[in-house]
Amino acid sequence: MKALILVGGFGTRLRPLTLSVPKPLVDFANKPMILHQIEALKAVGVDEVVLAINYQPEVMMNFLRDFEKSLGIKITCSQETEPMGTAGPLALARNKLDDGSGEAFFVLNSDVISEYPLRQMVEFHKKHGGEATIMVTKVDEPSKYGVVVMDESNGCVQRFVEKPQQFVGNKINAGIYLLSPKTLNRIELRPTSIEKEVFPKIAAEKNLFAMVLPGFWMDIGQPRDYNTGLRLYLESLRKKDPERLASGSTFLGNVIVDESAKIGDGCLIGPDVSIGQGCTIEAGVRLSRCTIMRGVRVKKHACISGSIIGWHCTIGQWARIENMTVLGEDVRVSDEIFSNGGVVLPHKEIKTSILKPEIVM
Amino acid sequence: MGLTNDVPSTVSSQKKTVAVIMMGGPTKGTRFRPLSFNLAKPLFPLAGQPMVHHPILACKKIPDLAQVYLIGFYEEKEFSLYISALSNDLKVPVRYLREDKPHGSAGGLYNFQDLLMEDDPTDIVVLNCDVCCSFPLTAMLEAHRKHGGIGTLLVKKVSKEVASEFGELVADTKTGELLHYAEKPETFVSDFINCGVYVFTPEIFNAIKNVSSSKHEISSLRRMSSFEALHTATNSRAMQADFVRLDQDILTPLAGKKKLYTFETNDFWEQIKTPGMSLRCSSLYLAQYRVTMPELLASGDGNRSPTIIGDVFIHRSAKVHPTAKLGPNVSVSANARVGPGARLIGCIILDDVEIKENAVVMHSIVGWKSTLGKWARVQGGGDYNAKLGITILGEDVAVEDEVVVVNCIVLPHKTLNISVQDEIIL
Predict the structure, then answer these.
(1) A343 and B412 in contact by Cβ < 8 A?
(2) Quick check: ipTM above 0.90?
(3) Contact A348/B30, CB-based, under 8 Å?
(4) Is the pLDDT of residue A11 over 90?
């Protein structure tokens, strides 16, 4: 089976993290975002993944070469010379996606994380025999998104409503699709939107079916949602594979720690924390609801909550970091500094406290 | 045949000068963000020419110039295109010498002593790339040779407030000798500042060597206590033996010993540390062109070419509609397109920018490949020193029709479809 992951562009909402690496390579729960998706695709039998990219393909390819070998899956890039929207990239990559076997192919959105119940999706797709299947997810505030209105009995999609003013339904497009190669015939090689142009046509022919996504779903394209996503992911891990979570008196709730990380005495870590490869957490540190990326050193007695600490940062002794602080790569926070929502670009030294949310360039 | 340094020579054919421009490197550049994301600071254009080009043009005027060296810790490939274009233009060789790590302003010189002395120069001109001034090098060289000391500093009288941000010095009013030097003093020392332009004789290498070896001795003789380590944390590099700073380590101890002299300038002088200052310095160089190379500036009256007010530079490949009005203090780079009825004041428009009809740009820098829609307005307050004093659009920023952007810094690849004020947009 084949798959296409829409990687797209510059990832500006995840700056300053995306100033150091392209967005799909930003780590999430100690693994590059895109690896979560590639592993899920491999598990359901996909043998080739095409990444639709329009920014820094060399960086992506260098990284992915290592994973091609270890995962045993073929990874190629389809480079857009101009932004092609959400459907154009499929036309661009059609030779790779349609191998003549008539088998359906997956399309995933790189910003999304979920449990990826792809095997169930394949079964659902075969059962209804229609042209295309999309995953939908239930949300509390549907009017922020594009709502999918469907026949609840069989999942047949009736229509899409962008940001509805009145309640029409509470299921939104989750950005995970399984399409039959016929769909490629509907897509011209120009910037097009799959949601606005392609799907409505298929739905009109009663050939588009929606499956409600079991489990969690999050668009982690911006820091606030990234942290919520981590909580949901770890919650799901607690149910499915609790061995991977840390255990012991040091830990509270769901915490994932890379095996190479060192944690000192007297720390209290959790809930909802990820600690990456090669990190050093010194004695007496409190971490809660935060992401600590690879190579970070958190010095003694520091306290970090609700924040994202980028690769190779150093957090000084007794520092207090909270309220959606995002530190880019290689930021050095001096001892005793307080950051209340600072957003700090790479390679900066923070020597004075940031008392209210601000961007430090 | 040897000329010793204490015998001032008036036979200029025996003199040879080498020029060194200190460029710095990427880790020091966070103050020049977001422009430094795309380009090494020395290559940022001021008045249509890369920053480093202005001191290089000044060096070109030195009659006995043998070679120009650029010393920095940027990667070579950043400058290779610029230097090969330069070699066709200048009549002397230009070389970029890459430091493997920062050695400080004097340490960098010392690190490359053998190369710098290759041509056996009698004098070494040292300039900082981020200084904007008239570089009166020929006059400075003459004065230096008359004084017969190890070095001559370019100095300027400024206001007390400005002086405290730089190196303050005291000079003998009769002889011009440097009597006292203090780098960024907390209390008032003097309103004369060090401009970062120097002429040295090869003796300077001995002076640097002495400082370097005494640092070696100090560091091997004692272990720093943890208290000291804490307080020199930010200067921990300065404790290393091969990191030698010109100001604190060389000028301060040598002052008052009849070795260093001063040369005063009354012309413009600024240091280009931030994008705001680069806008100011671009205007200063445009004003200088008016005097030295007026043919470089644009002119027009709205008939076949746009209306031009004051000093304006337009690259020959840029297209500006005749109904647009530009100036004062505007610089338009290669392949930019300025549409009908646009108004540009006090701004730098970088390569490949498109400005559509009736748009207005004031006190801003518009980054490479950006587009401004119809009736868009991009403006800054004009305070070059304030954090959000001018508006800076990074590479490939799109400002949609009728959108107003005031006092913002916008990082590359963003699209602005609603008006914004006083914000940094990541």
Answers:
(1) no
(2) no
(3) yes
(4) no
